[in-house]
Design a protein that fits this description.
Radius of gyration: 19 Å
Distance between the termini: 38 Å
Number of domains: 1
Helix content: 55-70%
Largest sheet: none
Number of helices: 3
Order of helices and strands: HHH
Length: 86
């Protein structure tokens, strides 16, 4: 998602308003948390895109011929778990 310059300025001004009463040392924890959430969100969207391609590819083991089954599979959270061999 790309923000226009006007939207970015609006959010920047809001962030500055929220930060007024915080010391910069405290504010960094909030910002780092938001950066982490953005990273996780982008990673999730990328992985979801991979699954969309996989479910639509007839040569894939996870191919779903029916559009409803593809949509349901994308909403299934188990596809996004990381499997670890113990």
């Amino acid at each position: 998602m790309s923000l226009s310059n006007d939207e970015l300025k609006k959010f920047w001004d809001i962030a500055n308003g929220l930060r007024k009463n915080l010391d910069a040392a405290e504010y960094k924890h909030i910002v780092l948390g938001l950066v982490f959430l953005k990273y996780i969100s982008d990673s999730f969207e990328g992985r979801r895109g991979e699954h969309e391609k996989e479910f639509a590819n007839s040569k894939s083991d996870r191919y779903k011929a029916d559009a409803k089954r593809r949509a349901a599979a994308l909403e299934e959270r188990d596809y996004y778990k990381i499997e670890v061999d113990v």
